[in-house]
Amino acid sequence: MKTIHVATEVNGDNVEFVCAPDESLLDVLRNRLGLTGVKEGCGTGDCGACSVTLNGRLVCSCLVLGAEVEGATIGTIEGMARADVLHPLQQSFIDHAALQCGICTPGILVAAKALLDKNPDPTDTELRYWLAGNLCRCTGYDKIIHAVQDAAKKMRTV
Amino acid sequence: MALDSNNKRVFKVVGTRPPRPDGIEKVTGRALYGADVSAPGMLVGRILRSPHAHAAILSIDTSAAEALAGVKAVITAQDFAVQDDSALRDVQENCMARGKVLYDGHAVAAVAALTPAIAKAALKLIKVTYKALPHVTDVDVAMRPDAPVVQAGRSFENVPAGMAENVTSQCEFGHGDLAAGFAAAALIVERSFTTAAVHQGYIEPQACLASMTADGKADLWCCTQGQYHVRALCAALLGMEASQLRVTASEIGGGFGGKTTVFIEPVALALSRKSGKPVKIVMTRDEVFKATGPTVSSSIDVKIGMTKDGRITAGEAHLRYSGGAFHCGTIDMGAQAAFAAYDLQAVRTLGWNVLTNRPKEVAYRAPGAPQAIYAVESVVDELCQKLGLDPLDVRLKNAARKGTKSSYGPTFDDIGLMATLEAAKAHPHYTAPLAPGQGRGLSAGFWFNFGGNTCVSLNINTDGTVGITEGNPDIGGSRAAISQMAAEELGIPYEKVRTIIADTSSLGHNDITDGSRVTFAVGLATIKAAQDAIQKMCARVATLWEIDAEAVVWEDGCAKPSGPNAGQFPPMTLAEIAAISFNTGGPIAGHHEFNADGAGVSFGVHLVDVEVDRETGATKVLRYTVFQDAGKAVHPSYVEGQMQGGAVQGIGWALNEEYIYGEDGRLQNAGFLDYRVPVASDLPNIETVILEIPNPGHPYGVRGVGETPIVPPLAALSNAVSRAIGLRMNRLPMSPPRILAALSAKR
Amino acid sequence: MRYAKPNTAAEASALLRQETGITRILAGGTDVMVQLKAGLVEPDLIVDIKHIGGLRDITPEAGGFRIGAAVSGAELGAHAGVVGLWPGVVEGFELIGSTQVQGRATMAGNLCNGSPAADSVPGLVAANAVARICGPSGERDCPIQDIPVAPGRISLAKGEFITSILLPGRPERSGDAYLRFIPRTEMDIAVAAAAVSLTLDKAGKVVAARVVLGAVAPTVKLVGPAADAILGTSLDDAALAALAAACSAACSPIDDKRGTIVFRTEVAGVLAKRAALIAYKRAGGQK
Lengths: 158, 747, 287
Prior knowledge:
The complex is a heterotrimer.
Chain A: E1 4-10, E2 13-19, H1 25-32, E3 51-54, E4 57-60, E5 73-75, H2 88-95, H3 105-118, H4 124-130, H5 142-157
Parallel strand pairs in A: 1-5
Antiparallel strand pairs in A: 1-2, 3-4, 3-5
Helix pairs in contact in A: 2-5
Chain B: H1 23-27, E1 43-49, E2 55-61, H2 63-67, E3 71-75, H3 86-95, E4 100-101, E5 107-113, H4 116-125, E6 127-132, H5 139-142, E7 167-175, H6 178-183, E8 187-195, E9 207-212, E10 218-222, H7 227-238, E11 245-249, H8 265-275, E12 279-282, H9 285-291, E13 297-306, E14 312-322, H10 330-337, E15 347-354, H11 369-387, H12 391-398, H13 417-426, H14 428-431, E16 438-447, E17 452-460, E18 466-470, H15 478-490, E19 497-501, H16 518-545, E20 552-555, E21 558-561, E22 572-573, H17 574-579, E23 588-596, E24 602-612, E25 619-629, H18 636-655, E26 686-691, H19 713-725, E27 731-732, H20 736-746
Parallel strand pairs in B: 1-12, 8-27, 10-11, 14-15, 18-19, 25-26
Antiparallel strand pairs in B: 1-5, 2-4, 2-6, 3-5, 7-15, 8-13, 9-10, 9-12, 13-14, 16-24, 17-18, 17-23, 20-21, 21-22, 24-25
Helix pairs in contact in B: 7-8, 10-11, 11-19, 12-13, 15-16, 18-19
Chain C: E1 2-4, H1 9-18, E2 23-26, H2 32-38, E3 45-48, E4 58-61, E5 64-68, H3 73-77, H4 80-85, H5 87-94, H6 99-102, H7 107-112, H8 121-126, E6 130-135, E7 138-143, E8 148-150, E9 153-154, E10 161-167, E11 174-181, E12 192-200, E13 206-214, E14 221-222, H9 224-230, H10 237-250, H11 261-282
Parallel strand pairs in C: 1-3, 2-3
Antiparallel strand pairs in C: 4-5, 5-10, 6-7, 6-10, 8-9, 11-12, 12-13, 13-14
């Protein structure tokens, strides 16, 4: 298979890579760009661990081809904190013990941020449905919901 | 010091909720999990798996795969020695089939290649000739005399003659006169139940990186709950000495018991040995479902007698568990746990393990207990309904307590069941009104908890900080809890302590992170290591002060003169002692190694309200409250997290999760699309109430908390649904088609 | 495998026609990527149609809307005009997968995947929607209900692909709704599904109706007798019971890991009843 050259923007940086035509964006991010914060839990869009934003839209990077992202803007968990200052959601997850094993955490943080960017004051029900594609097997979701709501509250008062 | 005493002590650090040490790494994506580690020049390992539920392997031709450009090694079972020990032989044959494939997804060969594409192409070039054999996946069918035999000659001697060859073991527990007990009952209810095999469903698939050099030394990085156990198994399977294999546990993306054995690790090592290169294997989700361990499926008969006023007169259970194609001992734990919550004069459980053509069972959170207790708690609830008794009052009346001879033998010491039941009764949830179509269920739950082999090093750094080296992968925040206990014992702030998890070459043996043992046993070893360091620090100070070592005491993080010397010298802080340690005898460290005993059993009670859509059979969980005895909650947030996470796994088990097999014996739902774990929108908040009845076996009173919470949800949900629809459900999962079918049958 | 991203529909059609091997069209990719991962298909050519002019547009047309084949669920759900006119179509489409899947998935892709359980298709058929197809001999229009042929198979010829779907305009006092049954609240494939589109007269009587079932037959099923059962009624209990019975009678489902024949047959009727009531309310009917 002939590889494809792609120029794109990841977390505000211009990057270039080559990939096979059938290579997923998830594999590109992890294996070619070293962004292993993007996790693979299923590879079929069922778990949300590989969530990233693509041109501002929340997607599963396992359901995107690397070849598709020419000229796109991609956001991953690695771009969420500003230097050493955590995003309020990240801080809130630590403060509220909203992670146990942490494997789903990057995807959930990216997904939660995408929601708060468009709806700064979601109800618990809206939040639970928005995050339905992000499986967490450790927490039972309770502390995740509290952590996102508390971060949302803090973000609204800033 | 309040050492080894049960007096209520005032804690400074234990019981607080500090941030976890691995928090920032995990919220920024920097934490390294199993698949995140790479090595220069590493190859990609892939495994060829059986498409048959049961078949003889007539031949395997790997020549075409070996000839493919970019393929560096191909292995089969021939690359592993035949093990004498039957347990090791099972592990080896589960990792790579020998002679027969025993389940859909059973590994038969593996390749290491330059790229994933080449590895995939190579797998297609391996020619395996199978002869399909009759298969069996259902536990009850496998017990029939004419059932296909999964593995011959595997039955233990205690299996009675005449039972099917798939029955590998029998166990029996109990005491008292059953006949007299049942004769004294006003009502006897006897019911049969089944539960499906369910998977732990950790979000991180198994992954490892193995690197072996020509001199036989190897390094292995993997996501596991027990690096020492991985070392023992891999060393045995590859014929290595333990010292030559260093295993490093990565961060672990969930385990719940499922990462307590090996699947891909020996394969990666064998491929690395053959290819002379590092080899990485990452399982796909499909492989995780097909070839790692789900829990046992079960078929259980329960008979319980009760007086009119709710006293249980006798209880009996027959339990049939299948842990797949290899023997497993989970039945023993189920048969022991079934009636553990009750103080009974007459009780008997009889259990059998049965082979089926399914993947080898691996532990799943309180292995064996949820199924057994589901059956017992369902029958108790039905008796309460039929006799018009309050289900909490009946459980209070019959609850095991201090001095109760348990149904499995030992006599209980201080236990928290009564307190937990009373807390449930006093909670507003128990008396909140229910609307028509809704039902409330409750169940008690129990887990033994374990201690086990543990080894901890605690180093006093010269700047007054402390480094702890322990050997148990952190699956729920244990590094925070261990740091808290060290800080508590040493009398220093939590922030001064950092706990890391050692590789197998850096610290003595530690048992697996299982049995809810880590906060208890590693915590206890940490406390004892701290005491060891304190003793050494006191000795150093005594030399400085030129007084007897016994005349120095440790209080509030300082060495102080005591007795006749009290007040003679200003106290010396840990930091001050550490700073001059090079001049007082060298570095200071504490150690402790032991086989921990006294883990202290744990009880919980769950309350749940559901609403059932009578036209579709769909169940909605409206409200859920968990009550559990934690002994002492070291980090209450993480205790709550265990209670909530376990409850939700149990909810999934009760309502929708199951391994579904086709007529061909192949797994139909090897993915998160159709293996339906609960999603966020399925659930309400999970309320928690922590009880603290100190465990006499731990200086702070700590009990394990991780496993008990998955035990009660099965019966709690089943009782709630049964009360909501006015019909007793006796099969899990209670998926909508089953509930609707039950309702239709009634109409 | 090769990846192509043509800029015109004609170019895409030519690529698809000329390829002798296996081709797949990539719009949202939420089915194709899963099939690639599972090794169910190994295409020789993937044609990404998202760069073709107009395929990401939603355009008013003849009182309705033309939806480009590459419009995602998230984009459609944010379009007030379409949501106002065809809420049942939008809700069906938006039920597919997670938020993440909605960021990519397309109705045309859902249709062309050929699944009998496709969530957006019953609503489209109930709406009398029409697909515009580009192919070797130019453009043609085709009613949605004529596209699925069998599980996993559609009626498009080699070189053909859908460029847009027209949701027609509709009379006053019209409403539609879609309901599916899944074991969880999200993330599942429909076990049974029903879409109802209806128009009322001023008195609140149903004067036009289309009832379509999903996941209970090899393809989505337009159930004429079910529509007849509610015509001229105000969805009284007898009419609803007749509707449910007609739906159940039209089912020819299978037993599988997601549900049983009995369950699907019964629940299809229940869902049709409930969807009809929602559609009725949306049409302005008072109960």
